[in-house]
C-alpha cells in the first residue's frame, strides 16, 4: 500500500513538470507558486480543519522543523523548478529530479548514519542508468550534444532536485505524532505566506510585467486556469500527502527510488498531451526505471518475511 502511495505521488508530480512547463509560458513563476500554495492552503483548511486544530499544539512545538521542511518542499522545490522550466525542457528537469536518490543516500549516510544495503545500491544504479539513457536519447557516447545544451534553466532544475533530496532526507525529523493531514495543511500555509513577500518584491521591481496583467492572463484562459487547478489538487495536495505517508512508513532511502517514476510519467504525459515523438530509448529507459524499483521492492518484501 505504501509503495502504491509513493507511485501515485510520483505520477502526479510527473504531471507537474508537464503542466508547469506549459503554464510558465503564460504565468510568472513567482505568481504561479504563490497562487498554487494559496489555493491549496484554503482548500486544505476546509477539508482538514478538524485535524489541523487538533494538531496545532504539536505543530507549534515543531514549528522550526515544519517551517524548514516547508521552505524546502513548498517554496524552493517548486519555485526553482518553475524558473528553470522557462529555459529548459520539462523532460530535462524531470531527469535531474530522478538523480536525487544518490543525493538522498549520501545525506542519509553522512547525517543519519543509515546503513546502505546492496539492494539500495543496485536499485538506484539500474534506475539511474535508465534516466541517463533517457537523457542521452540512447546515444550514451554523444556527450557534446548534451553538454552544449546545458543552460541556466538546467542549473535551476538541478537546484530544484537538490531541494527535493534535502526535503526527503530530513522529513524524518517531523514529529511522528503530527497527522499527515495537519502537516500538509500547515506546510501549504507556510509556503503561501513565505511566497507572498517574494512575489510582492518581484512585482515591485519588475519592469516587463504587472500583477494585474498576469492575473488577467491567468484567469481569462480556461486551459491555464485548468492547469492551476491540476497543480492544486494533485501535485500540491495528494502528492505531498501520499509521499509523506509513504516516506514515513518505508524510509527515505527505500522510498526515494520512486522518484524515478517522475520522468517516466512525465514522458508519457508529454507523449499523450504534447505529441512528443516516441523512440526506442523511451521504452528501454522505462524498463530500467521499473526494473530498479522492482528490485528494491522485492528485497524489502523478503526482509519483512
UniProtKB/TrEMBL annotation:
Keywords, in A-Z order: Cell membrane, Membrane, Transmembrane, Transmembrane helix
GO CC term, one of those recorded: plasma membrane
Bilayer topology term: Multi-pass membrane protein
InterPro entries: AA-Vitamin_Transporters, EamA_dom, EmrE-like
Positions of transmembrane segments: 30-48, 68-87, 93-112, 119-136, 156-173, 180-204, 224-243, 255-274, 280-298
Domain EamA: 4-135, 152-297
Record localization: Cell membrane
Family: Belongs to the drug/metabolite transporter (DMT) superfamily. 10 TMS drug/metabolite exporter (DME) (TC 2.A.7.3) family.
Name recorded for this polypeptide: Threonine/homoserine exporter RhtA
Amino acid at each position: 500500500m505504501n509503495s502504491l502511495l509513493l507511485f501515485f505521488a510520483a505520477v502526479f508530480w510527473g504531471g507537474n513538470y508537464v503542466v508547469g512547463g506549459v503554464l510558465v509560458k503564460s504565468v510568472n513563476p513567482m505568481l504561479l507558486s504563490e497562487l498554487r500554495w494559496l489555493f491549496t492552503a484554503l482548500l486544505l483548511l476546509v477539508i482538514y480543519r478538524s485535524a489541523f486544530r487538533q494538531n496545532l499544539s504539536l505543530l507549534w512545538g515543531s514549528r522550526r522543523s515544519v517551517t524548514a521542511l516547508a521552505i524546502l518542499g513548498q517554496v524552493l522545490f517548486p519555485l526553482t523548478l518553475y524558473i528553470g522550466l522557462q529555459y529548459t525542457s520539462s523532460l530535462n528537469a524531470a531527469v535531474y529530479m530522478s538523480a536525487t536518490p544518490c543525493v538522498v543516500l549520501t545525506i542519509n549516510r553522512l547525517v543519519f548514519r543509515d546503513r546502505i544495503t546492496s539492494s539500495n545500491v543496485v536499485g538506484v544504479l539500474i534506475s539511474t542508468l535508465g534516466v541517463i539513457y533517457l537523457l542521452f536519447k540512447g546515444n550514451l557516447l554523444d556527450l557534446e550534444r548534451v553538454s552544449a545544451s546545458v543552460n541556466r534553466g538546467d542549473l535551476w532544475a538541478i537546484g530544484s532536485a537538490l531541494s527535493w533530496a534535502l526535503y526527503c532526507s530530513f522529513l524524518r525529523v517531523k514529529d511522528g505524532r503530527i497527522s499527515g493531514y495537519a502537516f500538509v495543511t500547515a506546510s501549504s500555509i507556510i509556503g503561501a505566506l513565505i511566497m507572498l513577500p517574494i512575489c510582492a518584491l518581484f512585482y515591485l521591481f519588475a519592469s516587463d510585467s504587472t500583477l494585474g496583467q498576469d492575473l488577467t492572463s491567468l484567469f481569462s484562459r480556461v486551459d491555464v486556469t485548468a492547469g492551476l487547478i491540476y497543480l492544486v489538487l494533485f501535485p500540491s495536495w495528494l502528492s505531498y500527502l501520499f509521499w509523506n505517508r509513504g516516506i514515513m512508513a518505508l524510509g527515505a532511502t527505500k522510498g526515494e527510488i520512486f522518484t524515478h517514476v517522475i520522468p517516466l510519467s512525465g514522458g508519457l504525459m508529454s507523449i499523450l498531451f504534447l505529441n512528443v515523438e516516441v523512440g526506442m530509448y523511451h521504452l528501454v529507459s522505462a524498463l530500467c526505471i521499473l526494473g530498479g524499483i522492482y528490485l528494491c521492492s522485492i528485497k524489502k518484501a523478503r526482509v519483512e518475511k
